[in-house]
Specification:
Order of helices and strands: HHHHHHH
Largest sheet: none
Number of helices: 7
Helix content: over 70%
Low-confidence stretches: none
Strand content: under 5%
Mean pLDDT: 89
Structural class: mainly alpha
Length: 160
């Protein structure tokens, strides 16, 4: 009888195990959110070089006038956004990286940080910056899929 109780106690006390799928999800989040964090953080520094970039690439796009016009419109749009908006948009991606690191260590708070970061990123990109950088339906679906996958893996690992 005592052995049965000891086995039940040991079964309840076993630490959660990180699955390979959770590891892959976290690595993908590190790559994507890390890149997005650096992109939005460094874009204000690169804004001054965007007109020179247009001058260099316009010769490559000279055969396609429509593509050249779209490229110029994108660069003008990027230059017109105040730098503080880019820096504010970088913050949720940093939070997402921290959340993924916490989930990698099987901490429940990481999942909550990740969800908050995704909501904050959605608000920043769609309402603060908007225009040509607005999220489309595919971006939103990928975010929802990742949240559901994280939820499933953390539930499987008995973290949630």
């Amino acid at each position: 009888m005592e052995e049965l109780e000891n086995n039940e106690i040991m079964a309840e006390e076993t630490p959660p195990k990180r699955s390979t799928a959770l590891l892959i999800l976290c690595i993908l989040t590190f790559i994507n959110s890390g890149y997005s964090f650096l992109y939005y953080l460094l874009l204000p520094l690169a804004k001054e070089q965007l007109p020179a970039t247009y001058a260099q690439f316009s010769s490559l796009l000279s055969a396609d006038a429509a593509m050249q016009a779209q490229f110029k419109m994108l660069l003008n749009f990027l230059c017109g956004i105040p730098s503080w908006k880019y820096i504010l948009t970088a913050i949720p991606y940093a939070i997402a990286v921290v959340g993924a690191a916490c989930m990698l260590n099987l901490k429940k708070v990481g999942f909550h940080l990740y969800i908050i970061a995704q909501i904050f990123a959605f608000i920043c990109i769609n309402f603060l910056i908007g225009g040509l950088l607005k999220m489309n339906l595919t971006d939103i679906l990928w975010t929802v899929i990742f949240i559901l996958l994280y939820f499933g893996q953390l539930k499987k690992s008995k973290v949630l």
